[in-house]
Design a protein that fits this description.
This protein has 372 residues and is an alpha/beta fold. It is built from 14 helices and 16 strands.
Length: 372
């Protein structure tokens, strides 16, 4: 492994869940455990990829806590022996699939950060979302993780659920739990999900009000990205790689990669992936690099998610020359207060964070008419 290469992130996908949640569009298959054949394919893929030093390791899904300790240990050991173990090693877990002994084992084999799929601690909202854990189990799994010695825990929270509004008491309970990190997600109806087959109407006003409730409830944390809050020094380094356009390698069926200005995705069919786990990496590394136009869009779409903003130098170098009208559009949004200039960066104003997607679209569209 060449030490002069810049470290990258590594994401390992475990595409198995006990039950598919009603809103979930992530690639996964229902199962009660993870077949050893899939682990063998993961390691086969890992064996042939270039040996990068690692900035982060993130094992997600699906439900990675369905892995046996032996399976997880084989993955960690292979990465340690062939790459390096970074300082941030995250494992996603669901409340119903962990116990104290399992959590202690995670700690002993090198996992140092947990992302718990809490989503809610309201039983009716959990039922509506298709989650299979109870509200009591949600809190208990967090307490068990603390007992196991984890001092870096992230909790997921979904808001904007129609007919089941988020309440202050739920946010107060989560605040009292005192996690190091909170990731929030506004409910959306994605194709090929159970919700997409139902007549569900989302309320944007409700979602906006709940987003504002969340921001106020967790104002003691650093709101470093549109959907993420953390204690000082506990930002998700791995997720930040995505927003900062830093490189990461995805391993496993359906995993995405961004290396050498190339993006690709592994086979989403588990059978196809296991039949030839090395193929996606070879094809991906041989694919065409992103165009200047594609890069410019990415810099804006990803970088402006960071509440610290996007450096003006980056915008002037990588965006304006390749997006006709983007400078005029940005000036327009600056004058109207949707964007602000601070510390040589452009960022979305705090009161407009909820409509960030619309603001970014305004930047990359054709120039506005001149004011007369």
């Amino acid at each position: 492994m060449s030490q002069d290469r810049k470290p990258i992130g590594m994401y390992i996908h475990i595409p198995y869940c006990k039950a598919k949640c009603s809103y979930c569009s992530f690639f996964s298959k229902e199962a009660t455990n993870v077949p050893d054949s899939y682990i063998n394919s993961l390691i086969d893929e890992l064996a042939m990829v270039d040996r990068y030093p690692l900035e982060t390791l993130y094992i997600g899904g699906g439900t990675p806590s369905l892995l046996s300790i032996k399976q997880l240990e084989s993955i960690i050991n292979f990465v340690a022996d062939n790459f390096s173990l970074p300082q941030e090693i995250t494992l996603e877990v669901n409340p119903e699939s962990v116990d104290l002994n399992k959590l202690k084992a995670y700690k002993s084999i090198g996992i140092n950060r947990l992302s718990i799929g809490l989503q809610s601690i309201d039983k009716e909202r959990l039922r509506f979302l298709g989650r299979i854990h109870s509200s009591e189990r949600a809190v208990e799994s967090y307490d068990l993780a603390r007992k196991a010695g984890f001092d870096n825990i992230s909790l997921d929270l979904i808001y904007g659920v129609p007919d089941y509004p988020l309440e202050h008491k739920e946010l107060n309970t989560i605040r009292d739990m005192d996690p190091e990190h909170i990731s929030t997600y506004c409910l959306s109806i994605e194709p090929n999900t159970s919700f997409s087959l139902k007549d569900i109407i989302l309320d944007e006003d409700q979602a906006f009000e709940e987003y504002d409730m969340i921001r106020r409830a967790f104002e003691y944390l650093e709101h470093y990205e549109l959907s993420a809050f953390s204690k000082k020094g506990r930002n998700s380094r791995h997720n930040s790689l995505y927003w900062l356009r830093e490189e990461y390698l995805g391993v496993g069926a359906g995993a995405s990669s961004f290396v050498s200005e190339r993006r690709w995705k592994n086979y989403e069919n588990i059978g196809e992936y296991c039949a030839n786990p090395r193929e996606s990496y070879k094809v991906g590394m041989a694919s065409e690099m992103l165009t200047n136009y594609e890069r410019a869009i990415e810099y804006l779409m990803l970088g402006l998610r960071m509440t610290s903003g996007l450096p003006i130098e980056t915008i002037e170098t990588f965006c304006f020359p390749f997006l006709d009208g983007s400078k005029e559009n940005m000036d327009f949004l600056l004058s109207d207060g949707f964007l602000v200039r601070s510390d040589n960066k452009i960022k979305i104003s705090q009161k407009h964070l909820f409509i960030s997607d619309s603001i970014i679209i305004e930047i990359i569209k054709k120039p506005p008419p001149k004011r007369g």
